[in-house]
Amino acid sequence: MMGCQSGGQEKLFYSFNLEDHVPNNHLFRGIDSYLDLSDLRKYLSDFYSHTDRPSIDPELMIRMLIIGYSFGIRSERRLCEEIHLNLAYRCFCRLGLEDKVPDHSTFSKNRHGRFRESETFRHLFETVLKQCMSEGLVSGEGFAIDASVIKSDASKDHSLPGNELINWKDEVKPSFHRK
């Protein structure tokens, strides 16, 4: 007997758990198990007004950027659209089905303004690097570079002497902790 999709009235309530629709082995589940951005708000508190309306959560912004970098989504407009449509991305960003994804222009203003002024990306990079060192994933003793030729106006007269470089081994423990 041939089936037929029933037309009729839509349900008033749905039972839907976003977690049930993202595979256990999804890339972002692995990233999320190590990513703790709880100290981010404290780090950025001086860059936000305490009297205006609430802004977009900085943790959401960083999670969105991780998605963009992980999948090569360079357009902020497209990134916002992809997060709106993709259940795994919503889950990673901790957005429910009915939660709004930030507008691409607001996202851009925060990324190129507040985040750049506060050196948030440097702070995150150093924190993740320290966590990787504490987990034994990297030693911090050496580094590798590729052979890309890039024009620059660098000068030997303006380089840092070796004793002014950061000694990562002497740095404090990471501020973001494993869940």
TrEMBL record:
Span of domain Transposase InsH N-terminal:
17-112
Q: Give the matching PANTHER family.
A: TRANSPOSASE INSH FOR INSERTION SEQUENCE ELEMENT IS5A-RELATED
Annotated protein name in UniProt: Transposase InsH N-terminal domain-containing protein
The record, for InterPro entries, names: Transposase_InsH_N
What is the top-level taxon of the source organism? Bacteria
* Pfam families listed in its UniProt record: DUF772
